[in-house]
Design a protein that fits this description.
alpha/beta; 11 helices; 10 strands; Glyco_hydro/deAcase_b/a-brl; 41% helix; globular; two-stranded parallel ribbon; 8-stranded parallel β-sheet; TIM Barrel; YdjC-like; Carbohydrate deacetylase; hydrolase
């Protein structure tokens, strides 16, 4: 992986990507600060969410900021009224009885019901929303669905990435092995989703993970957000995770650890170049 990404053998590479950009304004502001002032290096945009317009304005003002598309078929909770970008009559298998996207707790129902042609219709609508805004993404990944949740959804996403000249995030071993066999750079070690870390002692755990980071390519999917009243109202369960991520990503300790440990931080633009110019 190091050679594919233009780094010497033995280099410790860490891809730090901020997920959920576009969920709401307090997430958007934290994501931008985590990249501009902190150690995050790219982000993933959720186009069906209420903060997506604000997020795209921030991206237009910052053409240098690498971002991908966080393909979204799932809403986090019943309180989030996220519908599809495609006309509802064209993607009925992706909707619950209220006509919205399925909640995260009902992912098995979604995966059992979702028609691949309707998944493609919705994914294309989400990609087109970005390209029609004049923005150029780096990669595709998924919200709440590791490797798309189904093999055929992963294959569809790979096809769309090839069409648009993008990289794809791969979490799980079957997909990673397939991509390695094709000579494409993918994460080599355990994938870190920050929602799976305990809140207690999180900063210390992040510091330990940096000190013990192995050589090769690792990836952290982080979820920065502010802890203000807007965040608490919009995301009563998730905001503590997001605030603790933001606090570490923008801390002097994080930067000092990277420097002391000689860790090279990457965003998805580095992977996109390797995927599209092998």
């Amino acid at each position: 992986m190091n050679e594919l990404l233009g780094h010497p053998p033995g280099t410790r590479l860490l891809l730090v990507n901020a997920d959920d950009f576009g969920m709401y304004d307090a997430v958007n502001e934290a994501v931008v600060r985590s990249i501009e002032e902190g150690i995050a290096a790219s982000c993933s945009l959720m186009t069906p969410c209420p903060g997506a317009g604000h997020a795209m304005e921030l991206l237009r003002d910052r053409p240098e900021l690498p971002f991908g598309i966080h393909l979204t078929l799932v809403r986090d909770s019943p309180g989030h009224r996220w519908g599809p970008l495609a006309p509802k009559e064209r993607v009925g298998s992706l909707l619950d009885e209220s006509g919205e996207l399925f909640t995260a707790g009902r992912i098995p129902e979604l995966l059992a019901a979702a028609r691949l042609d309707e998944v493609e219709t919705e994914f294309r609508a989400q990609i087109t929303a970005v390209t029609d805004a004049g923005l150029s993404p780096t990669h595709l990944d998924w919200h709440c669905l590791a490797d798309g949740g189904r093999d055929d959804v992963f294959d569809l996403t790979m096809s769309l990435a090839g069409e648009y000249g993008l990289a794809v995030r791969a979490w799980l071993d079957p997909a990673r092995e397939r991509l390695r066999a094709r000579g494409l750079p993918v994460v080599e070690h355990d994938f870190l989703d920050s929602f799976r870390l305990d809140l207690d002692g999180k900063a210390a755990e992040y510091a330990r993970l940096l000190r013990e980071l192995p050589a090769g390519l690792s990836e952290w999917a982080v979820h920065p957000g502010l802890g203000d009243a807007r965040a608490r109202a919009a995301d009563p369960d998730g905001w503590p995770v997001r605030w603790s991520d933001y606090a570490f990503l923008t801390s002097p300790e994080a930067r000092e650890l990277l420097l002391r440990e000689g860790i090279v931080v990457l965003g998805y633009e580095s992977l996109r170049r390797a995927w599209t110019h092998p």
